[in-house]
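We treat protein structure as text, and this decision shapes the records that our systems exchange. Such a record has a labelled line for the sequence and another for the backbone structure tokens. The record that follows is passed on verbatim for readers who wish to inspect the format:
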Amino acid sequence: MSLNEHSMQALSWRKLYLSRAKLKASSRTSALLSGFAMVAMVEVQLDAEHDYPQGLLIAFSACTTVLVAVHLFALMISTCILPNIEAVSNVHNLNSVKESPHERMHRHIELAWAFSTVIGTLLFLAEVVLLCWVKFLPLKKKTDNLPQSNSSTITSGQAAAIASTSIMVPFGLIFIVFAVHFYRSLVSHKTDRQFQELNELAEFARLQDQLDHRGDTISSAVTHFA
């Protein structure tokens, strides 16, 4: 096996292990967050006497449904692709990496990773905020008996919901900034690694050409003296 073929197989094995790790993380995260969303939808107790805003209920049900659908889609991709990659990674043969579908299904793996870790996490943060509003909004102060005092002051339930929103919104912005920074750093690292690997392959090719020319020179000299 030449040096170029060995380097290409090593690169393929690194991509296989990275794809397997992404699929495992996506499956675990999606199963956990979708389970939490379903429990929140089932266990939340709506006050029949309270007049909830229609937009709040629609936003809560839509966010929960989209959250579960996104995570189940990522979980389906991970469940379908991961066994094929696991079967190849457990075979102790360098040439078996060609049988893995991680190269062909690269876009699906990245899609599952993005749905599970980025879109799914943002939807889960929104789900927490909406759940706090649905849960705490019906709570009122027992001393609020006058209609004018109820209209001019904030109830305890509204204060709790506003507090949770004010905490979660900056955290969501920090999460978005970190995700963008992490993605840019990862792309920069991959670009540097690819340039380094191309330079190594070019150096290997140059050395191999020099060895081939040296062998041709020696063989021609031996033929000339003979």
Summary: The helical segments are 3-43, 54-89, 106-136, 147-152, 156-225. The two ends are 33 Å apart (CA to CA). The longest helix spans residues 156-225.
